Amino acid sequence: MTTFDSISSRLAEQAIELPSWAFGNSGTRFKVFTQAGVPRDPFEKISDAAQVHKHTGLSPTVALHIPWDKVDDYSALKAHAQEEGVALGTINSNTFQDDDYKLGSLAHRDDRIRRKAIDHHLECIDIMDETGSRDLKIWLADGTNYPGQDDMRGRQDRMGEALAEIYERIGESQRLVLEYKIFEPAFYHMDVPDWGTSYAHCAALGERAVVCLDTGHHAPSTNIEFIVMQLLRLGKLGSFDFNSRFYADDDLIVGAADPFQLFRIIVEVVRGGGYGSDGDTAFMLDQCHNIEDKIPGQIRSVLNVQEMTARALLVNTGELEAAQQAGDVLAANGLLMDAFYTDVRPMLATWREKRGYPADPMAAYADSGYATTIAAARVGGNQAGWGA
Ligand code: PSV
Ligand code: MN
């Protein structure tokens, strides 16, 4: 098997973007549980995200959601991020929390509502220009609940036109990233339900339009690593929204439900040239921590991604190719499993220490006293959550 030493510098290429919303209150449609010390504004969310990077060195950027993270002065937010040792990343649009969007946004029949949704995206691009963000991530809640409710073909056409107008405004060094989701909030059909639909729109838009793969957005048993392989092969895998799911879009800690699936996905990312300096595929988290502490939840998440990345990098690709070429099914499978079953945790602890990070980031955060400090300091005001 490949040695850990030989992958050590490749591990240093890893960057995992954190979602600002992971630090706010969240829950299910049944209950949102609040936690002490939760940020009241985007500045405090950035400070919390910076804690994850401080203890792991793995998460140098933070994604924002507009309007949840709207501020009067984005240069001040950018400067605050810099002071905290991180940078602002992807801008996520939001056309799913306004009464106007009940029947859709970019696919809506009503010109006024479509115009409003397009303008929201143009505003997001203005914000990207101020924050220095590369990616505009679009996830559309558009769809229908009942057969016959609307004409699916017409919706595709309108959505395609609207996306083209948004794409026109995307800068030379920026990207439009289109996320897909099989269901929810619409249950009969979604207008961007799968990678193929997202790919078709991105291909029509142009080079700077790419697909976002959210690991929670597929039917059970979908071979997600196949999709990863195909999108990389087509040069269109823009980013990941990583999370775990047991049933639907659970948004649980990445690697918690199925570490082996995460390993298989990262094997294909490495194989397809999407990892680190090889490519442009962004690793992001899209998670909520409804019942566990949020900052340690994010620390655990990035460590899980790093562990599976290390295991994926340990696959001996030369031997694997030889076994595949020889048609040696069991040897090929064995090589992959050898890498997967390697416990890289002690090696990663040493790797971190050598780079000036704590061997055990979870313990270091717990010992830092940050949780007690924010719980005492952040009293009063409105805790951030959906809509704030
Ligand atoms: C939709 O389920 C989604 O995955 C999109 O990425 C949104 O931006 C995000 O969740 C909101 O939490
Ligand atoms: Mn997502």
Write up what this structure looks like.
The protein has 14 helices and 10 strands. The chain is α/β, with parallel strands linked by helices and 388 residues long. The protein has one domain: Alpha-Beta Barrel (TIM Barrel). The protein has an 8-stranded parallel beta barrel, surrounded by 6 helices. The protein is globular. The mean pLDDT is 97. Bound molecules: alpha-D-psicofuranose (PSV) and manganese (II) ion. Alpha-D-psicofuranose binds next to loops.
Nutshell version of this structure?
45% of the residues lie in helices and 12% in strands. By secondary structure, the chain is of the alpha/beta class. Helix 7 (224-233) runs parallel beside helix 8.
The total strand number stands at 10
CATH class: Alpha Beta
- Biggest sheet strand order reads 1-2-3-4-6-8-9-10
Characterize the overall form.
globular
Mean pLDDT: 97
| Separation of the first and last Cα atoms | 49 Å
Q: Examine the secondary-structure arrangement and name the CATH architecture.
A: Alpha-Beta Barrel
Poorly predicted regions are none
Radius of gyration: 21 Å
H and E order: HEHEHEHEEHEEHEHEHEHHHHHH
Structural class: alpha/beta
Instruction: Bin the strand percentage.
Output: 5-15%
Let me know the CATH homologous superfamily: Divalent-metal-dependent TIM barrel enzymes
CATH-defined fold name: TIM Barrel
Helix content: 40-55%
Number of helices: 14
Ligands bound here? alpha-D-psicofuranose, manganese (II) ion
